[in-house]
Every structure is written in structure tokens, then in C-alpha cells.
Amino acid sequence: MSSGAQRCSSMKPWLAIIALLGALPLIASVAHAAHAADGATAKASAVAAYDQEIVHLLGTYCHQCHGEKKQKGDLNLQRYKTGAEAEKARKIWKEVSDQLQSRDMPPEQEKQPSDAERAKLVAWVKSLSAADAPDPGRVTVRRLNRLEYNNTIRDLIGLDFKPADDFPEDDVGNGFDNIGDVLSLPPLLMEKYLIAADQILDRAIVVEQPSFDIDLTTWPLLADGKEMAKPGPDPDKKGKDEGVTVTVASELRGLIAFPIAGRYTAKIRVAAEQAGAEPAQMGIKIDDKMVADIKVLAKKPAAVTVTFEAPRGLHALSVTFMNPFSEPPVDETKEVKPAPGALPGAKKKPAAPRVRALTMVALDLKGPRTTPPPSHKRIFTVRPDAKNKDPVAAGRDAAKTIFSTFASRAFRRPVTDVQIERLLRLYDTAAKNGQVFEECVRLGLKGVLVSPSFLFRVEPDRATKEPGGSYALDDYEVATRLSYFLWSSMPDDALFELAKQGKLRDPAVIEQQVQRMLKDPKSASLVQGFAGQWLELRKMEHLAPDTKVFPEFTDDLRKALSEETSTYFTSIMREDRSVLEFIDSDYTFLNDRVAKLYGITGVVGAQFRKVQLTDRNRGGLMGQGAILALTSMPTRTSPVKRGKWVMEQLLGDPPPPPPPLVEALDKQGDTHDVTKLSLRERMALHRVDPTCNSCHKVMDAIGFGLENFDALGRWRDLDGGGTRIDSAGKLPSGASFGSPAELKRIFIATKDKFIANLTEKMLTYALGRGMEHYDTPTIDQIVTTMAANDHRFSVLVVEIARSHAFLARRTAR
Predict the structure, then answer these.
(1) Predicted TM-score (pTM) above 0.70
(2) Which residue has the higher pLDDT, 207 or 378?
(3) What is the rounded distance in angstroms from the CA atom of residue 540 to the CA atom of residue 133?
(4) Which SS3 state, helix, strand or coil, does residue 537 take?
(5) For residue 673, with 0-12 CB atoms within 10 Å meaning exposed, 13-18 middle and 19 or more buried, which class applies?
(6) pLDDT score recorded for residue 224
(7) Which long-range contacts link 114-117 to residues 24+ away (Cβ below 8 Å)?
(8) What is the mean pLDDT of residues 313-340?
């Protein structure tokens, strides 16, 4: 008996039947029913807790500023008089919870809840989301952003070409440029897509040696731009190469689709009847521009060879008679010999005029020899079957195979018969215009590259009976989410194959694929796309310190500082290290240029390498020059910018924007000469205003904790005015510090705040949408799982990829 049968035999009879029938939908329904029951119980508990405890705590600590009489920030919490009313305002309670956890509320001067009371309020808010059916959210259809477009072209066609660099900048939402809600499609971008498709295919496809065999008698004959009747056949030639014989200035004109630009060789079968002092002259024109001419001497049709430059594309080609000529005979008349027995004095027969004529028969046109690049071979996996007696059908069959393979990869799912037929109609159009096989296929491929199925990541709504209207993504959609999350590109063959087998929803398979993908060189796009925006490294390109104050700053140093942080992130990702090392570590990555800036000896050469640090003030992101330079002013440091960056990017606690009409720091102090005050004294003066103090008390404290680093990231003990730097501070939690190293230890001690923020930002990036209150359980679960697994980087990614939010989607409501 198999192990599966043994397991079935040990089950209760009805369970064994379900297992044998594979009744997974029924099991799922039972599970959802159980969850719904649990959710109803949790919701009732949350409502009861509000009525019994929470409303009292709000009345004690919140209603005096956010109640019926006063609504600071336009917030009235007293309106929620019962738990039934309160549980419907999820977004508001999420904001309340964030303020409580950051200790921004209640204000410092107001009565404060105890730690237990604060924890009870936060736990109640979390219980609201836990009571709901899991909601994966609804991601808007997403256009490929510039990074994704370039990478997808690279992996689809195999070109080291970045056409999207010429596209307009992508809009940013929730801190990232892959958010569906902001990725619009302006008309200019659509034009860019059309241009890019041509540029891509020009590089990807070549014709090994274009050739055309043309019967010139089939081309229309034109004179003065108008079609004229062709001369009839010459009875003396008795069916041999008759061609078209012309005696007046005229041309045979047809359309030729030149697949590539270059030098073409034309062998033309022509003959001429001579008259006058010069031989017959023939010309070749492209779009009415003469590109070659030749003298025709043969009396019988023979091949004449000429070469010329031709542009790529569909153009008019003309074979032209350039110098028609006619002259009377030397004698006006000639003597006619009398017939035997005829009387003398018979009339003379008039002599025939001498006429120059050109006979044009056939044209054999060959283009330059080329070597197909790898991209060409990747596309043209088949050729028309030479054994097929119907060359048209053979070409169409080969094109169908090519389109099926290419479009399935480009659309990131199996292509439909309807889609294939649309592409074949493009192929047929090109074929009717006389284009060669490669060019006919090329037109269909252009249709793929401008198709919405390629340019957008579409996850269509499906009918569902799941709680909340959610439905599971199919395996191809999961493959696409995974690949654009970690690679900013299309799935590879391994992901496509797993999707085809229906295995990509298996948690073990997802983990295995994430581990594989993080080690792949293409994961560099996660550094560029996620880290570049999370840490704001993309702004380094526009960083402009005052070189009079900082003459050491050069473009080479700019690149080196940015590379230190990128390499550091890559190391944590590839080596699967703890994400807490983003806060603090005993190493970094340096080359000689950055090491010299930091005053670290023993580093030689431009290559970055891992360097152990003896000064723990330097370790982690907050001690790296790129971050410190980005958060400085052109001529000095900025405790405000540094504190704000830490609050936003590391702690997930962004301060609100400054109130209107608040004066800048350098303009404040009507009763003080601010130029004579230290930076710390000027900041203290700024915080005298209660409106400013609520935010600056945290920002300034963190910023001054990093004040020992100058505007380029060098360590210093004295500021620019020679005053000893005081980096001591105190956070709203009551924790004090006296150096960057001590500040980092505080953040490590409260690591869940950082882990939750990093999770939220990476989940935002992975899903392409902002976080909502219903995402809180997912974030909390990931934070808990990471704590149990040493906060390893891969655990964060795996848990996101296995989350309900990543593997499902909600229908429209």
C-alpha cells in the first residue's frame, strides 16, 4: 500500500473520501467558513473592548484635543460613541496607532498614558484588522516603468540596449516609480513606444543577404509621372526574352521593401539599339533620386551590373531610359532596284529614321551580406519549409510558430488564437507588399512590442465567492509578480515552466525560487529599483555641494559614495545577512577614494572591497557618505534633513509637512542675531514655536546625533566655526544618546519599528500599491517571522512572496 493510501485508511471515512476525490475546493470552503466564524468572534471582541475600555482611555487622553469641542487636525474621535461605530473607521485608527507608537501623541505637555495603556490602545487597533477577512488589496493595471521596460527587452530579445532611457521620467507614488496608480500613458510616451519598437527590431533582426528577382515586364511603365501603355511584343523575337522596349524617356517603376540599409548590387538584363553619337544610357532611381547610371552596349539582352546605396524601408525603385534619340537617315530616299522586267524610272522607297531604344527584361537585386546576431537567432527559431510547394503557406506557418513563442514570452502567459491571428494579419499585409520573410515577421513583432499585453501587467478580475471578493492569482501572474519584484523584468524559462506545471503557489517552491532569484545577477535590479528609491540614492546624480567649501567633491567621488551603499545593500542581499545591519555593522565596502575621505588607511585601488571597521560610529547606512551627503545642504550639514531622512526611510515615521508661513531657519530670530548662534542654538530657537516643536524635537535630536559627520561624511570633532560638536540627544521614548553609535543602539533595541517599516516599503514595492489598514496583519506576521529567523534578508522576501497580498487580488467593489 502506498504511503498516501495508508494515510487515507487512517482517516475518518468522510475525510478519506474527500482526500481520494481531491476535493480541495470543499476543504478551502470549510477553511474560509472557519475563518469567517473566527473573524466574527474577533469583531465582537473588538467592539466589546471599545465599549468597555478603549472609549474611556480616549476620553482621558485624546478627547480634549480631538473631541466635540476641539478638533485639532480636523480629527474628532469623540464621534465614535460605540464600538460598532468605531470598528468601521479603520484608516483613522491606523493613524491613531502610528501616532501612539511613535509617541508623537499625546503632545509632550499633555497627560501621558502609561506604557500598558498605550500598548492596549495599539493592540485594540490591530485587533480590528485581525477581525476582517484577509484582504489582498486591488492593484491597478501597471505599465512597465523605464527600468522594467529596458530589462524586459534585454531578457526577451537579448539586446544590450536601453531604449527607455529616452522615455519621459516615470511618476512616483508612495516612494516608488512602479506604483500602478501613477503610471499613466501620455501621448508622447505612446509615440516613444512606436519609435523604440523600430529601434529594437532594427538591432535584433537582419536579413542574411536580401535578394529580389524581378520580372521588369510586370512593372508599370511611366513617362512624365503618368502610366503609359507598354509596347506590344516584337514578332521577330519569337517568344524569347522580349522585355519592354522603349524609345522615349520613360521608366519602369515598382516598390521594393529594402530590409536593411546598405550597398545593393543590381544585375539587369537589358539590350539597346544604338543611334546617334553616344550609346544608350540607363539609370536607377530610388524615390526619384538617381543613384546609378550605366551605358548599355549589348544588342541582345545581357546582364549589366551596377551597385548603389539604398535606405532601409519601402521605397520606389525605377529603371530609367535616360537618353532617347531619333535622327533622319543620311539620304532622304534610297534607290529601289527594279524588279526583273520592270520599266526603268521606278519610285524610290523612303529610308527609315534611326532611333535609339532600350529593352529592359529582368532585375536581380542583392543586398549586403550580414551575420545574424544572437537576437535574430533567438527570434527566428524556424524558417519556411522549402519542401512546401506553396511558399506563401510555408512562410505563414513559420511565422505562426515564431509569433506563438515570442508573444507568449512577451505577454508573460500563453498567447491566444485570437492574438496570433491578429499578428498574422500584420504578416499578411507585409507579404502583400512584397517584403521578404524576415520583414513580414518583423511587422508582427512590432505589433507585439506595442501591444497593451506587453506594455502593461494586467491581472483581470475574476468571479469569486471568497470573503471580501478576493481571488487567487494564476501561476503565470505569480511568476510575473515574482520576476518584476526581484528582477524588474519578465519571468525566465524556469518560472515559465513552473507556471505551466501549476507549481508556483506551493510555499516551498516559492521559497526555492526566491533563493535562486536573489543569487542571480539580475537581482541587481532590486538594488537599483528598490534600494535606489528607498535610500534615495537616485538623487546622488543631482547632488551639488558647494565645491568652494568642499573642493574634494568630484563626479568620481559622487559615484564612489553611491557605489559604497549599493555594494553594501547587495552584500546583505546576496549573503542573506540580517537586515539589522542596515542600522549598524562592523564593516563597509570601500575603495581608495572613499577610504581616504573617511580617513581609513590600507585601502589601495579603485575596486570596492569589504573593510572591517574599528569605529562603530561609522557602521550601517547612517555612517555612509552617500546618505550623509544627500541629507546635507550645499555648504553645511542639516540636522533637520538628516533627522527627517531617518524618520521617513528607516523608522517609517515621517513628520508632517511644515505649516504654511513658517519662516526658514536662517530668517528667524527678530530679537537674536542668528549669525552669532551655533547651529544647535539656532535650532533650539526654532523649536520655541509650539507648532514647530512637535516635529523638530524628534528630527533635531536624531540629526544632531549625526552631526559629527560633515556634509560629505567625514568624521569631525569641531564644526566649521571651531566649536566642539555636541551630538547628545534624547528621544520621546526617554532614551538618551551621546554619539552615533549610541543612537544606533537605541534603534537596534527597538528594532521591530525598523523591521516593520522595511517590510512596509518592500511590500509596497513588490505589490505596486500603497499600504492600507488591512495590510497591517501581513506586516505584523512578517515582522514576527523575521524575528524567529535572525532577521535574514531572504526571509523578508520569501514571506512577502508567500503572503496572501502577493498571491491574491481583490475584485472591484
Answers:
(1) yes
(2) 378
(3) 43
(4) helix
(5) exposed
(6) 87
(7) 117/57, 117/61
(8) 78
Tens digits of residue pLDDT in 417-440: 999 999 999 999 999 988 889 999
The gap from C-alpha 95 to its chain's centroid, in whole angstroms, comes to 32
Q: What are the helix and strand counts (H, E) for the chain?
A: 30, 22
Tally the residues of the chain: 813
Mind listing the pLDDT tens digit for each residue in 763-809? Answer: 999 999 999 989 999 999 999 999 999 999 999 999 999 999 999 99
Query: Which 3 state secondary structure label does DSSP give 84?
Result: helix
Give the separation between CA 435 and CA 214, rounded to whole angstroms: 13
- Name the grid cell of 200: 529594437
386 three-class SS: coil
Cα 489 to Cα 410: distance, rounded to the nearest angstrom = 11
pLDDT tens digit sequence for 214-254: 999 999 999 988 999 888 766 555 555 579 999 999 999 99
Q: HSE on the CB side for 198, CA within 13 Å? A: 9
Q: Provide the phi-psi class of 305: left if phi over 0, else alpha when psi is between -120 and 50, else beta.
A: beta
Query: What are the φ and ψ backbone dihedral angles of 230, each rounded to 5 degrees?
Result: -80, 145
Helices (H), 634-678: 639-645
Four-residue CA torsion sign, 569, 575, 576, 577:
negative
Query: 493-496 contacts: CB < 8 A, separation 24 or more?
Result: 496/409
Neighbouring residues of 79: CB distance < 8 A, sequence distance ≥ 6: 68, 85
Q: What is the pLDDT of residues 743-758, one digit of tens each?
A: 999 999 999 999 999 9
> What is the average pLDDT across 727-752?
94
Exposure string of 674-683, with b = 16+ CB inside 10 Å and e = fewer, is beeeebbebb
- 276 contacts 245 by C-beta, under 8 angstroms: no
Question: Would you say the C-alpha torsion 41, 42, 43, 48 has a positive or negative sign?
Answer: positive
Backbone angles phi, psi at 365, to 5 degrees: -115, 125
Q: Dump the DSSP string for 158-173.
A: -----GGGGSPPPP-B
CB 166 within 8 A of CB 78: no
pLDDT at 467: 74
Distance separating alpha carbons of residues 787 and 755, to the nearest angstrom: 9
